[in-house]
């Protein structure tokens, strides 16, 4: 291409699902606008779509007008599905059918924030690496155990794109801009956004355990990591202590000093938090949630849950799980 050639404009269709994440959407669309501005060329254009083709609300209650519904696309754009809260309810049969139809034509399709769930439901992530917001990871794996789910901020697997949402949408789009038009332009866009570090698909979503718990003790961080990896089949803290070369008493002192609770209590809280996520995000029975979080009996699970959250798993499910029609 010579300096006088004008690159072909690439089109993105943003499919906004009900209660989509506004930050994930804005973080994806703004890099495209800035790429046009910084290059002085119409490198990208975009349209907003929603089931019904009129307005859709994001998770903070703001309404966004769209220009199209789920009609057949005449060109070959890239579709980016924007998810957020209540992704199961928002993933309707018409949305799934539309995505399947357009994907069969060979279109690139991506999911922002929780929308990897929508792509998985449509069968568009079979045999692909993907990612989803860390809070939805457990429920996603329960429903799609064969998916190759990464911990990274975003993934690109051929013509399937997924990202964890939030600022990760910016990382994905800057990577696509760099791929299409060069790293220099991507860097200029990042500078305009006061975005000093462009993450890659090798960067993980969550803060490191030492940063997350506010403690730099490597042995304590290792034990916390082992606890997080052993939710379904709990292990005695004494075993973890031996793994890092500590006595049980020394491990107790570390937890008391830095986390103000015993190892047993901390471990229980991790298991109960996972249980709460599963209750709020899946249709799993309370019994199956209990088993997935290492509780041998529903009665023991219910007792521990109530002691920690001041409500029962059954009431939690009744409050948070949307009613089916």
Short structural summary:
This protein is α/β, with parallel strands linked by helices and 325 residues long. It has helices spanning 22-39, 87-90, 93-104, 116-121, 137-143, 168-181, 183-192, 209-213, 218-228, 237-243, 248-259, 263-281, 286-292, 298-309, 313-320, and strands at 10-16, 44-49, 55-57, 63-65, 78-82, 109-112, 129-130, 148-149, 154-157, 160-163. It contains 15 helices and 10 strands.
Largest sheet data: 6 strands, mixed
Order of helices and strands: EHEEEEHHEHEHEEEHHHHHHHHHH
Question: For the terminal residues, how far apart are their CA atoms?
Answer: 55 Å
Unreliably modeled segments: 320-325
- Number of E strands: 10
Number of helices: 15
Model description:
The chain has 325 residues and is an alpha/beta fold. It contains 15 helices and 10 strands. The chain has a 6-stranded mixed sheet. It has a two-stranded antiparallel sheet with strand order 3-4. The chain has a two-stranded parallel ribbon with strand order 7-8. Helix 1 (22-39) packs parallel to helix 6, helix 6 runs antiparallel to helix 7 (183-192) and helix 12 (263-281) packs parallel to helix 15 (313-320). The protein is globular, with a radius of gyration of 22 Å. The model is unreliable at 320-325 (pLDDT under 50).
